[in-house]
């Protein structure tokens, strides 16, 4: 599906949850003086303008990063990524996950990004000319390049869930990736909805056949009356040290909303 445009949702509360934990994981990985691979299946355009019509129309950033940024100290890797995007693209810039990764990774690390939408893929290449950007089906690409070289690394799977079958397909994809890349950190994001469409998938994830997993779920008020998203979920295979503690601390913050 090519209709989804993350510009309407960039910087929302779900992004805060997902991106804060992603940045913690990447910051931990870069502490070791060994190269790594960052792989993303649904990359988007890398950087978003929160003053754009799309963002203002939904009001999601206003209830997300614009409201919640004070949760993060200046030395938090998420804040580091946000400041890097603003320095490069202006005060109203917000980094998507590809740019967050790029701002935290090193020259020796590899970035492989998949984005199927042609305009989004072009914007991604323009924002990140140093990355390996593929206009391709993300799940298929992930399966084709794993295990990657370097073998250490992380894969973020972040579909739009416009198609209901994605709720069944994503656990299957995770299983396949984990079998091909058992040492890889695999992160799957999903929305928590008023319809409960995600519940069966979340239950399937809880019983995933992997030695170590983590499931983080947070809830928040809808950005506007009638909005269907009321929370965010992140399932992780092989969570790095410190991620569970960071997720618990973040959940406490969300519970205060």
Topology, please?
Layout: H1 13-29, E1 37-40, E2 47-49, H2 53-58, H3 65-68, H4 77-89, E3 93-95, H5 97-104, E4 110-114, H6 118-127, E5 132-134, H7 138-145, E6 153-157, H8 166-180, E7 185-193, H9 199-206, E8 213-219, E9 229-237, H10 243-255
Describe the structure.
There is one protein chain. This protein is of the alpha/beta class. It has helices at residues 13-29, 53-58, 65-68, 77-89, 97-104, 118-127, 138-145, 166-180, 199-206, 243-255, and strands spanning 37-40, 47-49, 93-95, 110-114, 132-134, 153-157, 185-193, 213-219, 229-237. A seven-stranded mixed β-sheet has the order 5-4-1-6-7-9-8, with helices on both faces. A two-stranded antiparallel sheet has the order 2-3. The longest helix has 17 residues, at 13-29. It is globular. The model has no long low-confidence stretch (mean pLDDT 96).
Keyword list:
seven-stranded mixed β-sheet, 257 residues, alpha/beta, two-stranded antiparallel ribbon, 10 helices
What portion of the residues fall into strands of 2 or more residues?
A: 15-25%
Q: Gyration radius, to the nearest Å?
A: 17 Å
Count of individual beta strands: 9
Largest sheet: 7 strands, mixed
Q: How would you describe the shape? A: globular
Q: What is the residue-averaged pLDDT?
A: 96
Query: How many angstroms does the end-to-end distance come to?
Result: 33 Å
What is the number of helical segments per DSSP (H or I, 4+ residues)? 10
Describe the strand arrangement of the main beta sheet, using strand numbers.
5-4-1-6-7-9-8
What is the helix/strand order? Answer: HEEHHHEHEHEHEHEHEEH
From the helix content, strand content and strand pairing, which structural class follows? alpha/beta
Helix content: 25-40%
Low-confidence stretches: none
